[in-house]
Amino acid sequence: MHGALHVAKTGLSAQDTQLKVISNNLANVSTVGFKKDRLEFEDLLYQIRRQPGAATGEDSMLPSGLQLGSGVRTVSTQKLFTTGDMQITDQPFDVAINGRGFLQVTQPNGDIAYTRNGELHLDGEGRLVTAEGYLIEPAITLPDEVTNFSVATDGTVNVTVAGDPEPQELGQLELADFVNPQGLQAVGQNLYIETAASGAPIVGIAGEDGLGIIKQGMLESSNVNAVEELVNMITTQRAYEMNSKVISTADEMLSYVSQQL
Amino acid sequence: MDKVLYVAMTGARENMYAQQAHANNLANATTTGFKSDFEQARAMRVLGDGFESRVYAMSERPGTNLDSGTLMQTGRDLDVAIAGDGWLAVQGPDGNEVYTRNGSLQVDAANQLVTGSGLPVLGAGGAPIVIPPAQSLTIGNDGTITIRPVGENAVEVAQIDQLKLVQPENGQLFKGRDGFMHTDNDVPLAANPNVQVRAGYLEASNVNAVAELTAMISLQRQFEMQIKMMKTAEELSSSAAQVLSLS
User: How far is B245 from chain A (nearest CA, A)?
Assistant: First the structure.
């Protein structure tokens, strides 16, 4: 029918996807440990309608030919793992990772997932869990009547129990790092799972081997920049309008043909 | 049938091709590092035996607009934009060295530095760049990649490689079917030390949306005129049939 129709359609659907990514980022502007997504666009293949250099006569040839692009596509979303602002909450069960690394979480199916959300809770058995109730790996179980709970920068967990002045060491939180954190798959609930693109997790102690340190009483806020997202939303909307204008132009051309002839 | 019908038909067809070229530019109005395509029409005589009385229209892409797009600040270490002229060399889908200005780079699981679509980025020697496990990574203004290896002190920085940046002469690059810039016969260009990059920025598409929309409107009107010509041809032939009819 009209090539421009299909080309503009790819533009519309790409801007649609872009808007979805932006709205997801904006919806998570205050989600602890959230990392924003960015959509990657790429132009589609070009078709050669007329080959440059094709002969037009005995000793003449086309100097530039005609190559027509077929639109745009969305290649991938990239998670941007820049650090969010650190908020001081002074809650003993809030931990933030200052630097690289992820906390490890055991999902209900037994697989390990990774998160930067350090809002920890206790479950009925005194174990450290995430807000969803998933166990932190390595599992740390608190005794009864804890009066003080502290996490050192290397992840060592110490508690003092009522009636005992000596603190007890309960274990150590470990951090996992990846060669390519952007390759992690986000599965919701602030969790990421390992993929072939991310590489295998490298588990270590906080503060060593390039891993970040653990800060108790702090949380890492979302790294979404609301202003930036709103600016992106404006460009997306205008690009969408222009592509729909292309479609209406193509439509008017075709309807003109069917009316006039 | 009157030849005017065929001449007008090529005009309308070529207008539609031209519309597609502009639609492609508009569809890529937000594609990082995209370079818009020019489109022009040429008059083509119909060559052959006999008197060359007819001249058809022909749309063509004379080249690509290589103007820089606006630099957008992203703050990401692995985003690079080229300041001024120059291109980033990557290994294209066909294995040849191709050039792009889309510098949203990433490190893949094999520790290779790749573009957003996964094509290896080439280093100063023309080989793909491999980044050892790093705690932090900095790309300098000349494309030098410096890392702080995992577990090392801040003073133990290591220089890994340098992005291969080229500065071709005018007319040396053309856009291939994969959307990347190629040289004739894919002969690799030599790295040019004068090309500057800025880390933490990306280059926006250089499509001028207003110009593209204006071109679309003017092509639309032109198209309508071609259709009008076809209509006129039809009327001429039907009135000729009337005059000559035996009744």
Answer: 23
- A261 vs B14, B66, B75, CA distance in Å? 18, 41, 56
CB count, 10 Å around CB of B211? 13
User: A120: which 2 tokens?
Assistant: 């920890």
In three-state secondary structure terms, B237 is helix
| Residues of A whose CB is below 8 A from B25 | 69
The confidence score (pLDDT) of residue A144 equals 85
Burial label, A219 (beta-carbon count in 10 A; 0-12, 13-18, 19+) = buried
pLDDT tens digits along A82-104 = 888 999 999 999 999 998 899 99
Most confident option among A1-5, A77-81, B161-165: B161-165
Across the interface, do A183 and B108 touch by the CB < 8 Å criterion?
yes
- Residue B247 — pLDDT band, cuts 50, 70, 90? low
Q: What DSSP character marks residue B124?
A: T
Rounded CA gap, A38 and B32, in Å?
12
Asked if the C-beta of A121 comes within 8 angstroms of chain B's C-beta atoms, the answer is no
Query: What's the predicted TM-score (pTM) here?
Result: 0.83
Query: Closest chain B residue to A261 measured between Cα atoms?
Result: B231
| A253 → closest Cβ in B37, B109, B220 | B220
Question: Amino acid identity of B188?
Answer: P
pLDDT by residue (tens digit) across B49-73? 777 778 888 888 888 999 999 999 8
CA distance B41 to B197: 37
Which residues 6+ apart lie within 8 Å of B214 measured at CB?
none
Query: Please, which residues bridge with residue B111 across strands?
Result: none
Which residue reads 């060592």 in tokens? Answer: A156
Q: Count of CB atoms within 10 A of residue B206's CB? A: 20
| Residue whose structure tokens are 């679309």 | B216
Question: From CA B83, how far away is CA B201, in angstroms rounded?
Answer: 10
How distant is the Cα of A115 from the closest Cα of chain B, in angstroms?
19
Q: Is the pLDDT of residue B24 over 90?
A: yes
Q: B70 in helix, strand or coil? A: coil
Distance of CA B42 to the CA centre of its chain: 21
Which residue stretches of chain B are H helix? 4-27, 209-244
CB B224 within 8 A of CB B37: no
